[in-house]
Amino acid sequence: MNDIKQSTYHIITFGCQMNKSDTERVAGMLDALGAEPALGQDDADIIIFMTCCVREAADERLYGQVASLKNSKALIAVGGCIGQRDANELAKKMPHIGVVFGTHNIVNLPALISKAMQFKKPVVEVVSNEDAAKLEQPALGLDTPTTREHDWHAWLPIMTGCNNFCSYCVVPYVRGRERSMAFEEVLSDAKRLVSEGVREITLLGQNVNSYGRDLYGEPRFAELLYALEASGIERLRFTTSHPKDLSRDTIQAFAEIAAVMPALHLPLQSGSDAILKTMNRRYTAQQYRDLVTQIQSACEASGKGTVAFSTDVIVGYPGETAEDFEQTLALVKAVGFAQVFTFIYSRREGTPAASLVDDTPREVIQERFDRLVDQVQKSAWTFNQQFLDKEVLVLFEGASKRDNQILAGRAPRNQTVHAPLPEGRPIADFAGKLLPVRINEAKTWYLRGTLL
Length: 452
Fold this sequence. Notes:
Layout: H1 2-5, E1 8-13, H2 17-32, E2 36-37, E3 46-51, H3 56-67, E4 75-79, H4 80-93, E5 97-101, H5 109-119, E6 123-125, H6 129-133, E7 153-157, E8 159-160, H7 171-175, E9 179-180, H8 183-195, E10 200-204, H9 213-216, H10 221-229, E11 235-239, H11 248-256, E12 263-265, H12 273-279, H13 285-302, E13 308-315, H14 322-335, E14 339-344, H15 362-385, E15 391-399, E16 406-410, E17 416-420, E18 434-442, E19 446-451
Parallel strand pairs: 1-2, 1-3, 3-4, 4-5, 5-6, 7-10, 10-11, 12-13, 13-14, 17-19
Antiparallel strand pairs: 8-9, 15-16, 15-18, 16-17, 18-19
Helix pairs in contact: 10-11, 11-13, 14-15
């Protein structure tokens, strides 16, 4: 693959943490072959899009950006969820694309790029979900080289796919059914990462709470958390957790294990039982509330303290009434989320919800969305006030994007923390370090303090 060795590359990533993890593996494979990251898109010989099709906006951005490169001399590669879903359509609509690949064959990308360069014609390779399911292990590429964004943080996929088939969601159709990595493989990867200096690991899966069910007949996620504690990792996070599968054992592990950070992403989607049923979420609003109470109580009993809950909420799902929305708003207010990812419903072809008809005016949906955002901001501000004049241990990432004299990092509860860079000290002295900060300012989306 000498053609790749002489090349520069640029990767554009859309969507979830799984795509970010995939991006790091693509970069690692290209780096291992002698390619180098470009200064920017205009300087790249190879431009790779890691795509997401969960919402329409991501589709539109991808197609728009790829179309704008029609006259580019770079080789264009499109992968991820849109590559999996639209392989043939992409190749027909935009023949200037050099490579199309899917969610199950990322490890083949260097060979596909080399082939496209050599023969000067498009290459399309997408492994079906059915064929991927026949593999002994899910094709997560954990044994491939990886170029991580930060040396001290690593994404660790423990499973791929989803069995839940929520009515609005396209993920099971582009990522396939749940496939778990072997227990021993996950532990081995975690220990290797710790030996390389990684201080924080984020476990990834569409529904980590069901980890192991396909391999062992029952979920083993709580057991996995306890086993990972013994790896010596200092900080452990995980995403995403489906509320219906969050077991008592996992709640206890979350509360007891010091390395597991007190921040939990628990997607709600709606606070209306009627909408939750239509969405096929398989829990009620009251069950969700009870789950939050159980988690918080367990963490208080263990001494872990306040949990930072984050969630996803969809506004304007087909059939949502004013009363349905008010129930969602009330639940969001009652829980007091530290962060909420808010979305207006996006119709996805191929999902059950795509056939639902809704005549709610767009301006009504937008007004509901704006009210939700206002409540989210109030809840986040209130949550952060409890850390005023408190000391928090921050894992620093580097300089703030807006000011290179300000350090930026993450607190245990996942808040962004800013602190002035000590005079005469370079940023490199602090990147990847765990240091205490005294908080003297609490804003809606960040904390500010001074290094102790």
